[in-house]
Amino acid sequence: MDFCDAMEKLPEKENNGLFGKNLLRTKDMSDEDIKAIAAGACALKAMRDNNVSPKIFDSGIAVSMFSKKDNGMELAFASGCDLLGLTIIDMDRKLGNSNINETAGMASYMADALGICESDFIEKSSRYIKRIADSVEEAQKSGVIAQKPCVINLGSDEDSPVQTIADLQYMAERFGGIENLKGKKIAITWAYSPNGTRSLAVPQGILSLVTRFGMDVVLASPEGMDLMPGTYEEAEKNSEISGGKFTRTDSMEEAFADVEIVVPINWAPFTFLEKRTELSAANLGTYIDLLEHELRENNKEFINWEVTEELMEKTKDGKALLLHDIPADVTDITCIRGEMTAQVYNANLENLLKEAGIRPYVIAAMIILAKSEDPKAAFETIAKRATKRYF
Amino acid sequence: MDFCDAMEKLPEKENNGLFGKNLLRTKDMSDEDIKAIAAGACALKAMRDNNVSPKIFDSGIAVSMFSKKDNGMELAFASGCDLLGLTIIDMDRKLGNSNINETAGMASYMADALGICESDFIEKSSRYIKRIADSVEEAQKSGVIAQKPCVINLGSDEDSPVQTIADLQYMAERFGGIENLKGKKIAITWAYSPNGTRSLAVPQGILSLVTRFGMDVVLASPEGMDLMPGTYEEAEKNSEISGGKFTRTDSMEEAFADVEIVVPINWAPFTFLEKRTELSAANLGTYIDLLEHELRENNKEFINWEVTEELMEKTKDGKALLLHDIPADVTDITCIRGEMTAQVYNANLENLLKEAGIRPYVIAAMIILAKSEDPKAAFETIAKRATKRYF
Amino acid sequence: MDFCDAMEKLPEKENNGLFGKNLLRTKDMSDEDIKAIAAGACALKAMRDNNVSPKIFDSGIAVSMFSKKDNGMELAFASGCDLLGLTIIDMDRKLGNSNINETAGMASYMADALGICESDFIEKSSRYIKRIADSVEEAQKSGVIAQKPCVINLGSDEDSPVQTIADLQYMAERFGGIENLKGKKIAITWAYSPNGTRSLAVPQGILSLVTRFGMDVVLASPEGMDLMPGTYEEAEKNSEISGGKFTRTDSMEEAFADVEIVVPINWAPFTFLEKRTELSAANLGTYIDLLEHELRENNKEFINWEVTEELMEKTKDGKALLLHDIPADVTDITCIRGEMTAQVYNANLENLLKEAGIRPYVIAAMIILAKSEDPKAAFETIAKRATKRYF
Asked: How many domains, in total, are found in chain B?
């Protein structure tokens, strides 16, 4: 794809809703903002694939804070920032044992972007990220920092905008544009994993996002495996406004019928996460272990929530596109029984890697949009310069 | 501030006392050297605040070695080096379990700067840093390395020149120049912290530095909470030469009377540190735990050494400037009882962040001064090029 | 040395056997390939020593994966990549607990080089590195990545090409060219270390390499301290083809007689490594501890395999060049009894540091050769640009 096509879709100066903003949840962004990020990611990827370097920062820092190891997102953040010329510094800072104002101040001195991943605590995680963002703003107002870095949510308790916008853009690539997603049938479904304690960020984030673009969405999960309160209502409202559809089922098989896209993903139920957050606040580590053990035992009841070739056969023409925010838990590859069989995984591996490969460009696009009064001009500067990488 | 003003204060070619040198202790630097670092930091900050990039290295490496996690100084070193165009590599190397010559050699191959933080062992820590610096020099003499990196002390057992010169520069900014610090009343005072095992680097370093610039210094600490032998004598001698004043008291209240600057800070007494160093050399970890426990118990006697609003009222016009090498131990924010109340901390947060924000620029200035035969020319090169950052 | 001389030895466009290749084992490279890497390293070092920056990448990433801490090789990889303009991202990924296809995909998205160090498991380690390399190739073929990074072995169970080519180049520097190594006597000898569990990568790699260049090689080791099966046969065959010589002895003293180069190095016997690999696959950690304990106890029988001044006296004119892939285990410096005495170590330290200092340049040369259809042109581009570093 020629990157000029994607650049056409970038907002004009007066319409960049992301200028000066943080990137915390897609629900805080307008549809136009989201399309702008997708278009920016697409343009940057096309440049890089043609070996044109989109390095726009002469120097500068991007600070990452991960409350736990996440190789995929860490590499995505590092690659996306490096693409623009920012140096990555990883700050080992966890929720709870730190003074947020100092953390935010120290991380911001020369930073152009701040990426935070903190997903373990229901409500607390997103409040933590929000408070960092507020402190950064405060630091700019009081003159502590001359320039405000944009704060990017790399995965919280409730959303993971980098992942979900990458997913949206990947579907757009496959179906000929975001507009063409309207009416397309997509199944988002809980899937079994022996680990079982993954956050709600991705399933909630993707549900909230695709219902906004008019898709025909079915959500499948075993009884009791609930998302955060309000999520279903929000999805319904989104669907109503966008002219899409939102239904629920407790059968994976039912969900797969005739869909064009499937998103199998494991998550821990809201009630478990809420309880774990309480126990953690009370420093009751032993009880957390017990609680997680119970969850894993309970989950075994749903060991059949595994995507198999037979299930894939039920999708439209037996050829649905399978999405996943890899790493995935795959039967016979990473565990004895997981979210999907090795056959299904291997048949879709190329797509899964392409999907995940968009994340660095989403991050880079977010930074340019948040930093640019006039993003089109910024992209044109890059394109005009057209620095060819030597190799 | 226009960065040209600060650049005026940089030394002429024939007067750069730091060229080719390491940056280990302020007491090894002349007053002119210290002023040069402060001026350099000031010029670099002004450039960056005006979005001019002071990147002077096309490529190159800065190696950091931290014997334990110190987010603030790690970020300062990384930001300061990145500002100049150096890539940061963190080398996980601790005193004791390594061969100093190999460590120094391997760290130096392509390094332009080497930042070392090692503060736990009385005398041993600074000797370790010194030996690294000597090995680096040896490696250059024998042709192992073509260029000698400057070694920067990021915190040892006895000094922390990056922190203290940042403090000096911040006071200079607040009071209209280093010259204006002459005669200003400053209280450096021990303060309670539940941790209690912080090194002497900052209190000793700041005492040693401010007495050189003619300030009217009072040092307050509970009985027995002593700094290293010789420190008080040095402070007295400094004061005599500079025309300042140095007194001691065992009352925080007394120390605060009518001062314009207060520096509350927790430290562990010399006798404790000496004993811990011995126990550590003998590999008696259990006894170290016991010793630290005793110290913390003993410290409870001094729980009232906390900066409160009432105490701040006793300072000049009730408005003394409060300095601290954050992170601080703050009552109700990071602990139940700490060095200062939340009210005092919050009222001074903006200043504390501005003070800490100078550290990256001090580090960058140190590197330019140690690398440049003619630092004015180096700064002029940067200023003339005036590479505007895109955003 | 003028870097032009070394550049003369680079291959012409039609003869670059490394273009598009990975760098896994010297035995997969032709003699010409190896000489090209050595010449490239030499040219790059000469440039940097003359303060010319060989930065050829405008942006780009190099990903490292170390299964365990190795400060020397980590710094070498980071420095070598930085020299060319690549940003280093360290990916904490271990053999076994990961999905190789995902790992390879995620690491490759924007990477120009991938450095992997994984040496603990006989056969499995090199198979792991090979599978990563295959996955990367797969990812390029299927369009997941636009550009294939070259995969560099930074130390496996069977070879360490960066180390051994650095050694070859260092010997070439000392003896006036690789051609002059022909017929030179070299002793590769097992040496005692209290640790005792080092991999076979370096002794095997160096044996395999120097026998190819016509050297007169003697390998000394205590009975039972065997390398991988097939290694001796390969060395013999290499020697036959190159017109060199290969003999074995179980006496260090005998090996040292009249040699010009000595390479003392500790390694664990193949049978131990094989057994440990089995126990590890069966998750029998306690038995691994036991096995390692037995090995260390058994090794004490060979505590006299230590390079002393007396032994060095037996070498040609008493002045053999001593090589070691530092860090070394040195008597009285890092342990009570090690591979060599402190006197021998200190007398050779300068050489050891110079030898190790070539590694970053070998890595950089490997990258340019693997990336360039026409490496001479790439080097000429760098030389013509001749970007002087400011300091």
From this structure: 2
Do C110 and A82 form a contact (C-beta atoms < 8 A)? yes
**Bridge partners, residue B263, by sequence:** B188
Residue B297 Cα, gap to closest chain A Cα (Å): 22
Closest partner residue to A327 (CB to CB) among C61, C102, C381 is C102
For residue B293 the two structure tokens come to 């426990």
Q: Does C381 touch chain A (CB under 8 A)?
A: yes
Query: Quick one: B367 and B338 in the same domain?
Result: no
Same domain, B202 and B71: no
Query: Is residue A343 in a domain?
Result: yes
* Residue indicated by tokens 């030895």: C9
Q: Does B112 touch chain C (CB under 8 A)?
A: yes
Check CB contact under 8 Å for C333 and B142. no
Burial (Cβ within 10 Å: 0-12, 13-18, ≥19) of residue A179: exposed
Identify whether B105 is part of a domain: yes
Closest partner residue to A99 among B330, B357, B389, by Cβ? B330
**Residue B67 and residue B27 share a domain:** yes
Q: What is the CATH number of the domain that holds C27?
A: 3.40.50.1370
Alpha helices for C142-269 (secondary structure H): 161-175, 201-210, 231-242, 252-256
* Rg of chain A over all Cα atoms, to the nearest angstrom: 21
Co-location of A365 and A333 in the same domain: no
Residues of chain B with Cβ-Cβ distance to C391 below 8 Å are: 56-57, 112, 147, 371-372, 378
Model confidence pLDDT, tens digit, residues C285-306: 889 999 999 999 999 999 999 9
Same domain, B125 and B172: no
Using DSSP's 3-state secondary structure scheme, residue A218 falls into: strand
Per-residue pLDDT at C2: 60
Residue B391 lies in a domain: no
Q: Give the per-residue pLDDT at C98.
A: 66
| Same domain assignment for residues A91 and A196 | no
Q: What is the pLDDT of residues C19-54, one digit of tens each?
A: 999 999 999 999 999 999 999 999 999 999 888 889
A71 and C106 in contact by Cβ < 8 A?
Answer: yes
Nearest CA to A174 out of A71, A323, A281, A282 is that of A323
Amino acid identity, position C292: E
Residues C21 and C56 in one domain: yes
Angle at alpha carbon of residue B43, lines to B40 and B44, rounded to 5°: 85
- Put simply, the answer to whether C327 touches B146 (Cβ < 8 Å) is no
Q: Kindly report which listed range (C73-87, C92-106, C156-170, C254-268) carries the lowest average pLDDT score.
A: C92-106
C128 and C251, same domain (yes or no): no
Return the pLDDT at C389: 78
Q: Which residue has the higher pLDDT, B303 or C120?
A: B303
B60 vs C71, C87, C389: nearest CB: C389
Cβ(C305)–Cβ(C190) under 8 Å?
yes
CA distance A352 to A291: 32
Cβ-in-10-Å burial (0-12, 13-18, 19+) of A298 comes to middle
Is C391 inside any structural domain?
no
Domain of C46 in residue numbering reads as 3-159+358-385
Q: For the segment C329-357, what is each residue's pLDDT rounded down to a tens digit? A: 999 998 999 999 999 999 999 999 999 99
Q: What does the alpha-carbon distance between residue C43 and residue C21 come to, in Å, rounded to a whole number? A: 21
